[in-house]
Amino acid sequence: MAQRSYRKSQLIAFDNVAAGHDGVLSDASGAVVIKPCSQAEVDFYHSITGGEHSRFATFIPTFMGTLELNSESDPAAAVARTAIMNPTEAGQSITGSPPHAIPNAPVVEKAWAPSNGGKIKTDLAVVLENIAAPFQKPNILDVKLGARLWDDNAPPAKRTKLDKVAEETTSKSLGLRIAGMRTWQGAPASAGSNGISKDGYRLYDKHYGRTLTTKTIRQGFEDYFLLERGGVIARKSPLRAVVKRFFEDLMELKSALENEESRMYSASLLFVYEGNRDALVDALAREREKPANGINGDEASEEEDDDEQQVPAVQGLKLIDFAHAEWTPGQGPDENLLQGLRYTIEVLKGLLEA
Fold it and tell me: Residue 304 above 80 pLDDT?
């Protein structure tokens, strides 16, 4: 297992977070996301990289390993060590008791207090690909899935709080809630005013998603795709290709999850698409040009590999946040998660048919 070391000074705050806890980091290249997590989430990523859930694995960010921030007194000497996993080394199952469990050990139940989006108290983090990295101006949407948001180990206080959130939002009725998003407005003159950040993004926090109802949830997706209320996506609009691809990806993810036996509480769908219209149009045009190279054999394969690296990204969809996820053989598909996923599909279908 190879290790890559970082000094703490090499890590920077990750600024493309649409929702979730504070404390997410990246490196100067922006290619990775370093997300504070629990051991349970690390174990879940290991279980996926083992190859048993290969179809589902295509819908999660690439897992690159784990990171630990040493709490040394000298900040300059603090080192983050990233264990880069070989997929063949990470095939253990996480069902049942963890390997480090002590038989018959007493369970001490600590008092639970809500973090309210604050930094998680942990020195452990997962290192994941940053799926927004290939985009010039990534438009990002985080959709929290599930009517039930807590796992079986949640203390009563946490269950009560999350049930209240679900009841007061679209989580309970639709199985989804918009947790946050950021959209590039493309107008430098408006940056820093009218709710637009200095880098030209309009930010929507968790409170925005909590104001939406079963009757207005579509408006949240309209805001993400920069559409007018009840707006129609023109047949030749590049945005139509983006929404159609998201729809197709969601259908494939739904099929994959319907063939898995799992429980993933508070997992999220992460949508990303190119917010710079000129870059989006260029990416789609370059995709159409790819097959017309007229080259055969090994040379064609090499040329295609080069093209793949050079063609800009159009959109991407991943399932994220597995702090409360496990495989549950014999218990059937995760209908709690699928409820919200199916409704998201219906919303996008409506946008395409409008």
Answer: no
* C-alpha neighbours within 13 Å on the C-beta side of residue 166: 23
Q: Which residue has the higher pLDDT, 111 or 11?
A: 11
- Look up tokens 């209320």; give the residue: 229
Does the pLDDT at position 79 exceed 50? no
3-state class (DSSP) for residue 80:
strand
Give the span between the Cα atoms of 337 and 176, in whole angstroms.
Answer: 9
Q: What is the mean pLDDT of residues 80-99?
A: 38
* Structure-block tokens of residue 224: 């993400």
Q: What residues have CB less than 8 Å from 138, skipping those under 6 apart? A: 16, 132, 184, 272, 273, 274, 275
| Average pLDDT, integer, range 204-211 | 94
Mean pLDDT of 184-209: 81
The C-alpha atoms of residue 220 and residue 18 are separated, in whole angstroms, by 14
> CA neighbours within 13 Å on the CB side: how many for 282?
12
Q: In b/e form, how buried is each residue of 7-21, taking b as 16+ CB within 10 angstroms?
A: ebeebeebebbbbbb
**What is the residue type of 192?**
G
pLDDT, residue 349, reads 95
Q: Which amino acid is at 280?
A: L
The amino acid present at 41, given as its one-letter code, is E
Phi then psi for residue 142, to 5 deg, are: -115, 120
Cβ-in-10-Å burial (0-12, 13-18, 19+) of 261 comes to middle
For residue 289, give the amino acid letter: E
**pLDDT of 102 higher than 80:** no
Residue 340 · residue 254 · CB < 8 Å: no
User: Which residues are registered as beta bridge partners of 65?
Assistant: 84, 127
- Distance (Å) of CA 326 to CA 23, 57, 96: 24, 14, 10
pLDDT for 158 beyond 80:
yes
DSSP of 257-300: HHTS-EEETT-EEEEEEE--HHHHHHHHHHHHHTTTT---HHHH
